[in-house]
Amino acid sequence: MAQIPVQTIHRDPQLFYWILIPITVVMILTGVLRHYATVLMATEPKKQELPAIREQRSLLRGINLRTNANVISPASFQARKDYLVNAYERGDFLKDPDKKGQAAANPMTDPAAMEGMMGMMKGNMAMMIPQTLIMGWINAFFSGFVIIRLPFPLTIKFKSMLQAGVGTRDMDPQWMSSISWYVLCIFGLQSVFNYLLGSDNAASQMAQQMGQMGPGAGAQMFGPGVDPDKQFKAEAENLSVLAHEYTLEGVEDRLLETVRV
Amino acid sequence: MSSSLSHPPAHLPPAVALRISQQAPITLRNPPSVISSYSISSLWSAAETPELWTEYENLMLSCLRTGDEQSAHLCLERLTERFGAENEKLMALRGLFQEAIAKDDAELKQVLEEYENILTKDPSNMPVTKRRIALLKTLDKTTEAITALNEFVDSSPTDAEAWAELADLYVGQGMYPQAVFAMEEVLLITPNAWNIHARLGEVLFMAGSTGDSSADKYLGDALRRFCRSIELCDDYLRGYYGLKLTTSKLLSILPQASRQSKSDSGLALPDLKTVERLNETATAKLSEIVRKSVNGEPGWGGYEQAEVIAAKALLDSSAAKTIR
Q1: How many domains does chain B have?
Q2: Where are the TPR repeats (chain B) (predicted)?
């Protein structure tokens, strides 16, 4: 099989200084800027009123009792169970007892929920706008430039990825266009930002997208649109069917078996 | 800053706290980059860490403990500069500072009034609520402190610290059933905390020593609590100490205790043989701990000196009794 001759393209070395480096520098600077913009735009978490805190923590108390019931004596457990089940069923711990039994408010009309959505919007905006601007800038000035030759061979499949904006059919996929370099920068600058801004920075889009995928489990539990009364009823049910098993039963024999003097 | 600064200073022995606060002027010489004047290098320097501010808080507490009010004030100022005067935690810290520099009860009452003003504006300010309770305790208004704590645990029943404090206050008043209840709440939040198990055992032991009708039931519970604390933490000195005390007491009352009285609720008292064996084990373990800790054997350090001395005294007194 005949050896395929190595393609050589004579590029102006100025391409390197005036395209490759500017794109990289601009990407890094935008990342830093985005980080600080996000920090500035972040709203403080809204303070909760005392009844709301009471509602949440009373529910947590029931959950604690359910999971750790075995450390207290059967009599103590029974007393607590009776108290909590009664209080849960009457709705004593509710934030506003008058609203008991009504359907949960629509999360869209709840101002607290709107706040959270605004925060998410802001984060999205801080990501979208610079990206659009830089893409436009690169398209306007540098589209169609082949700027770098990768030092390793690649198959033809990579052509569409690495030579975006260059419509040359026979060019070796090792050659890379400016737009592809930009795309590579988006994904590859994470470690640079980590070095510059610390590990929990807001500069990288990847981290932000990850964050949107899985919001914290705690937010789900007390999030908007969840009816606390239903939660209390469910917890009362869980508590009342719980079988109690006292840990301290026979602990002295267990201890005598394990301790060797 | 040294690593011991990242732990709350209440757990530090006095010598370490003193050393930390003596180094405070050196530590505080350079303000952190975040609040110092703007420079281009601050744009690139690593972001501030939460640990830095924890260290400032702990340094301030250590300084207050050792009477270095100037350094404490500097810490407070820098914290205020960073987080603003309206921050809940800072309001409590500032109150703490004022409490520390107050000369007499009249000034303390002024601080108390300030707390109450803050709390009428914002009743959900947890740190200040806690400070107010602590100050009530300082002013010897125990009943008011108990009432305030009861309100606090009603709105925040998952706060182990508050429950423990409440139990402590009840013990001080001799209200043991209430104290036991509060300690059990702490255990429900932290089910494997051996020190809390031992503490509950101590409260039960105190309740059992008052000499009312259900004393032996309390002592049986106390015995089991101490056993559990040792089960959770091997060679736990406090647990063995309590176990020895409880078993000695039980041995003196078990023979004449009526068998019927304990079958109504809870577990029956352990039989005489078990209690005797537990007593022997506790004595042997205690003497082993004391011996090895005094000799400074590797792996046996870390016991608090006062506790080792107390254990030795207990062993000596029981030995004297047997000889007699």
Answers
A1: 2
A2: 160-193
Matching residue, tokens 């507490």: B61
Among B119, B124, B203, B265, the strongest candidate for a mutation testing the A interface, having the largest count of A CBs within 10 A, is B124
Q: Which residues from chain A sit within 8 angstroms of residue B47, using beta carbons?
A: 197-198, 200-201
Q: Do B44 and A249 touch (CB under 8 A)?
A: no
Residue B162 lies in a domain: no
pLDDT digit string (tens) for B29-57? Answer: 766 655 555 555 555 555 567 788 888 88
Q: Which domain holds residue B243?
A: 192-255+270-296+306-324
- Of the candidate ranges A76-80, A94-98, A179-183, B280-284, the one whose mean pLDDT is the lowest: A94-98
Taking the model in full, what pTM does it have?
0.78
pLDDT class of A214 with cuts at 50, 70, 90: very low
Residues 6+ apart with CB under 8 A from B235: B285, B289
Q: pLDDT digit string (tens) for B240-297?
A: 999 999 999 888 887 665 554 444 456 777 888 888 899 999 999 999 999 988 888 8
Cross-chain Cβ contact B158/A248 below 8 Å: no
> Side chain identity at B285, as an amino acid letter?
K
Count CB atoms within 10 A of the CB of residue A38: 17
Mean pLDDT of chain B: 84
Per residue in A95-118, pLDDT tens? Answer: 877 766 665 556 566 666 677 777
- With beta carbons less than 8 A apart as the criterion, state whether A174 and A150 touch: yes
The answer to the question of residue B153 being in a domain is no
Q: Which of B156, B187, B188 sits opposite A57 (nearest CB)?
A: B156
Query: In degrees rounded to 5, what are phi and psi of residue A199?
Result: -80, -20
- Which of B128, B218, B231 is the mutation pick for testing A, counting most A CBs within 10 A? B231
- Residues B267, A246: C-beta atoms closer than 8 Å: yes
Nearest to A37 by CA among A130, A113, A117, A114: A130
Find all residues with CB under 8 Å of B6, minimum gap 6, and list them.
Answer: B51, B54, B55, B58
Residue B131, number of CB atoms within 10 A of its CB: 25
- Mutation target to probe the A interface, by most A beta carbons within 10 A, among B158, B230, B232 is B158
Instruction: Give the domain ranges of chain A.
Output: 13-145+189-258
Please indicate, yes or no, if residue B147 is contained in any of the structural domains.
no
Q: What length does chain B have?
A: 324
Q: What's the mean pLDDT in A68-80?
A: 91
What chain B residue is nearest to A260 in terms of C-alpha separation? B281
Is there a domain that residue B226 lies in?
yes
Residue at A157: amino acid letter: K
Going by C-beta distance under 8 Å and a sequence separation of 6 or more, which residues neighbour residue A238?
A: A62, A66
Q: B101 in contact with A at a CB cutoff of 8 Å? A: no
User: Tell me, what's the pLDDT at B260?
Assistant: 47
The answer to whether the complex's ipTM is over 0.95 is: no
> Which chain A residues are Cβ-neighbours of B270 within 8 angstroms?
252
How many C-beta atoms lie closer than 10 Å to residue B193's C-beta? 19
Residues contacting residue B248 through CB under 8 Å, at least 6 positions apart = B279, B318
Sign of CA dihedral B85, B86, B88, B91: positive
| Poorest-pLDDT segment among A167-176, A197-206, B5-14 | A197-206
Inter-chain residue contact A252 with B44, CB threshold 8 Å = no
